[in-house]
Amino acid sequence: MTNTQPEEESKSSILDDLPKKVLDESYYHGFLPREDLPCLLEQVGDFIIRITQLKPRDPCELILSLRVSDQNSPSAIRHVVIHRLKGKDGKIEWLTNQENRFNSLKELIDAYVSSKKPINPEIKTSQLIRPIARQSWEFLHENIILKDMLGEGQFGEVRAGEAIIDGKKIPVAVKIVTVVKQIEDIIEHAYSEESETHSRLISDTHSAEKISSKDDADDLNEPSRSFISQTKRKRRKHHRRKRRQKKSRIHKKSAEIIKYVI
Predict the structure, then answer these.
(1) Residue 118 shares a structural domain with residue 96
(2) Do the domain assignments include residue 166?
(3) Who wins on pLDDT, 224 or 210?
(4) Which range of residues forms the domain containing residue 165?
(5) In Å, how far are 15, 53, 68, 226 from 207, measured between CA atoms?
(6) Among 22, 40, 62, 136, which one is least packed by beta carbons within 10 Å?
(7) b/e per residue, 159-175, with b = 16+ CB within 10 A?
(8) What Pfam families does the annotation carry (predicted)?
């Protein structure tokens, strides 16, 4: 850990040259939607690293998502941007605030885990306790083989391909999304097909891909909150709860339906 500030710094692109060591960390989940986090971060202190886009057209950011409360509310899971700064000498430093700088993401994470120091000084429970590893429904990008392009669909380019599952190559059709905002749409689309097709979602550091097995034939922006009638609020709350329950069933009972590639 270093505390000296370089004379001149510039922010490097997260997606252009994210070190392979980061991609190999078990707690790195790639483009994981915010709505899926409650299913993963079950206990206070659980955390993951993911990629997101805070606003349309903005560069993507590396985010640490952490559960700070047992309550079932949006504020129970907090999100910290991990900055990567480069000085004139080309040295990269990782930080969440200006006071503490680290030589690598692993060094940053290990320091907060061992010290039990809140990563957000304003929230005492923002301690990094348990890193949550990738789940069985999350693929590594190396387990997806892209082949010939078949055409273009609603969400972008469609390619033939193969998914390596339990050592076996499964023929699949892959829908590739190049616009980050569409990741959320493609995920919702797959959820709506829960009872019709066994679809798998893939997201890597540059695109989102949807895989549909030939054999089986949010984050991006927080929803705006407006003042609405009590009836409408109750209705929206009911639908959100039903959607969360549905997604939880998918994750826990049918891991083959929704999958992500890192």
Answers:
(1) yes
(2) yes
(3) 210
(4) 138-223+253-261
(5) 11, 12, 30, 31
(6) 136
(7) bebbbebeeeebebbbb
(8) SH2
181 is in an annotated binding site: yes
In this structure, is residue 39 part of a structural domain?
Answer: yes
Average pLDDT, the chain: 72
The reply to whether 245 falls in a domain is no
Sign of CA dihedral 162, 165, 166, 170: negative
Q: Which residue has the tokens 């590396």?
A: 62
Report yes or no: 180 and 50 within 8 Å, Cβ to Cβ: no
Coil vs helix vs strand at 83: strand
Indicate which CATH number applies to the domain containing 143.
Answer: 3.30.200.20
* Domain final position from 131, 165, 191: 131
From residue 109, give the alpha-carbon distance in Å to each of 87, 142, 262: 22, 25, 19
| Residue 127 sits in the same domain as residue 152 | no
Give the residue carrying structure tokens 């939607």. Answer: 33
